[in-house]
Amino acid sequence: MGATPIAFTLALTLPEVRADWLQAYAQGLSRMALHCGLSLVGGDTTRGPLSLTMTVFGRVPAGQALTRSGAQPGDLLCVGGELGNAAGALALVLGERHAEPALAEPLLAHYWSPSPQLALGQALRGKASAALDISDGLLADCGHIATASGVALAVELERLPLSAALQGLLGLDGARQAALAGGDDYVIAFTLPPAYLADLQAAGWPVHVVGRVEAGSGVSLHDRTGAHITPTSRGYQHFRETP
User: Fold this and answer.
1) What is the pTM of this model?
2) How far apart are the first and last CA of the chain?
3) Rounded-to-integer distance, Cα 15 and Cα 4, Å
4) Given the DSSP bridges, would you call strands 228-229 and 76-79 parallel, antiparallel or unpaired?
5) Which of 170, 169, 176, 3 shows the shortest CA–CA distance to 82?
6) Which residues, other chains included, contact 123 with Cβ-Cβ below 8 Å and sequence gap of 6+?
7) How many angstroms separate the CA atoms of 46 and 13, rounded?
8) Closest CA to 135 of 117, 119, 159, 152
9) Alpha-carbon distance 10 to 8, whole Å?
10) How far apart are alpha carbons 71 and 213 in whole angstroms?
11) What is the mean pLDDT of the chain?
12) Which terminus of the chain is less hemmed in, N or C, by CB atoms within 10 Å?
């Protein structure tokens, strides 16, 4: 949301005390906290079914927080990096696919250690009209922006930024499907007035235009001719009943 990180709290519920698990968890948590410039400032530890709850605090100038509302027709739809890498890695983690290290390692690194785009979020303050991070898939999360802003978002299939590793593992069609609906990317999706694009890219920020904001509602997918494409999946649905 464009905030500068301050601190976080942790509520940890454990069924039993396992020193090896706690040590490994604490090491991973410490690495990410140091990377993000955060300190653990409180919380609670109790016995019960495993549950981990974190609350993260940040500071942002008044009126400059990046929210899901605010996108306007004519804005560009952008993302802050390659999409689909975590979805590709999941197939490796589950043993559904196997790959040589040159393909597997960059995908698994993205899956196991996603890095929040804090600096990019701060650079977008006062520029992006709406934003969120992609956790459920590009199409699903763009739907949240469209609903909150009262606009339509048009995604262009050929403009999706895809890594060589993901395409090597899944092929072009599979990589595109992972980018559209895979989730767990934690890359920022945002809408941007066109006037800001050149300066952001010139400053080295990984801004990729993947579509546009239009009048209307919902999210649509288009090929290079502008024709509509019906996606096979729109992303993770939190309350969908499993068969």
Assistant:
1) 0.90
2) 36
3) 35
4) unpaired
5) 176
6) 200, 203, 205
7) 5
8) 117
9) 7
10) 7
11) 93
12) C
Note the Cα 148 to chain centre separation in Å: 18
Rounded-to-integer distance, Cα 79 and Cα 18, Å: 40
**Amino acid making up residue 216:** G
* Ordered DSSP codes for the chain: --PEEEEEEEEEEESS--HHHHHHHHHHHHHHHHHHT-EEEEEEEEESS-EEEEEEEEE--TT----S----TTPEEEESS--SHHHHHHHHHTTS----HHHHHHHHHHHHS----HHHHHHTTTT-SEEEE-SS-HHHHHHHHHHHHT-EEEEEGGG----HHHHHHHHHHHHHHHHHH------EEEEE-GGGHHHHHHTT---EEEEEEESSSEEEEE-TTS-EE--S-----TTPPP-
Report the half-sphere exposure of 75 (CA within 13 A, side-chain side).
26
For residue 140 the two structure tokens come to 């699903």
Nearest residue to 164 via CA among 107, 211, 204, 242: 107
Kindly indicate the confidence band of residue 243, based on its pLDDT and cuts at 50, 70 and 90. Answer: very low
Q: Tell me the residue type at 219.
A: V
Does residue 114 contact residue 107 with C-beta atoms inside 8 Å? no
- Each residue of 97-152: pLDDT tens digit? 999 999 999 999 999 988 899 999 999 999 999 999 999 999 999 999 999 999 99
Residue 147 has phi, psi (to 5 degrees) of: -65, -45
Classify burial at 12, counting beta carbons within 10 Å of its beta carbon; exposed 0-12, middle 13-18, buried 19 or more.
Answer: middle
